[in-house]
């Protein structure tokens, strides 16, 4: 069942609504899609709550710090939140999830399963389900259609083009092999 009201995401994003500006709904829907995709990987309720929390922060530094080199900024925003909310284990796991969500290839076997699930969910969304990691394409399409793109991918393409022009030798600083 698709979760159309994720309080964890909404409460975080409401604090950053001004920074997100016109991209609020695009980013919110991206976070909702990533969170809902995670349920397709058979995770527990507590893991789903953690994924939803991390989803809210994972790209937020793009808007709060106005940069495409945003991973550390997103982690710092999440650390502030976690200082009031979660235990140290959740914090370390959350940091790993954000650090590795743009990793192109699978993480090594020692990585937490949830870090790998989060990475896959973000890739599913960014590629519109082309990269599906064995997840049923019908379920992916259902989630994609429930939460409209609202310009999210177009915004990322514009940022990418700008970054390529200004930093041709480091166009995607958030990407890892």
Major pleated sheet: none
Helicity range of the residues?
A: 55-70%
Encode the helix/strand succession as letters: HHHHHHHHHH
Q: β content, as a range?
A: under 5%
Number of domains: 1
Tally of strands: 0
Question: Roughly what is the average pLDDT, rounded to an integer?
Answer: 88
Shape: globular
How many angstroms separate the termini? 33 Å
The structure class reads mainly alpha
Supply Rg: 15 Å
Poorly predicted regions are none
Summarize, please.
The protein is mostly helical.
Overview of the molecule:
It is a single chain. With 177 residues, this protein is an all-alpha fold. The chain has one domain. Helices cover 63% and strands 0% of the residues. The termini are far apart.
Keywords:
177 residues; mainly alpha
Outline the fold blueprint.
Elements: H1 7-15, H2 17-20, H3 24-39, H4 45-57, H5 61-64, H6 71-85, H7 88-99, H8 113-126, H9 137-146, H10 152-166
Helix pairs in contact: 1-4, 3-4, 3-8, 4-7, 6-7, 7-8
């Amino acid at each position: 069942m698709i979760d159309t009201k994720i309080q964890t995401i909404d409460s975080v994003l409401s604090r950053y609504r001004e920074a997100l500006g016109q991209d609020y709904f695009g980013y919110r829907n991206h976070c909702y899609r990533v969170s809902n995709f995670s349920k397709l990987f058979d995770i527990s309720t507590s893991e789903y709550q953690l994924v939803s929390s991390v989803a809210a922060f994972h790209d937020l530094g793009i808007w709060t710090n106005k940069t495409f080199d945003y991973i550390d900024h997103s982690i710092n925003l999440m650390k502030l939140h976690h200082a009031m909310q979660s235990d140290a284990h959740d914090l370390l796991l959350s940091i790993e999830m954000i650090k590795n969500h743009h990793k192109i290839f699978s993480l090594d076997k020692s990585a937490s399963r949830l870090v790998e699930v989060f990475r896959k969910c973000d890739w599913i969304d960014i590629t519109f389900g082309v990269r599906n990691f064995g997840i049923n394409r019908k379920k992916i399409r259902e989630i994609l259609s429930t939460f409209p793109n609202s310009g999210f991918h177009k915004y990322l393409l514009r940022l990418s083009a700008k970054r390529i022009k200004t930093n041709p030798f480091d166009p995607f600083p958030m990407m890892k092999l």
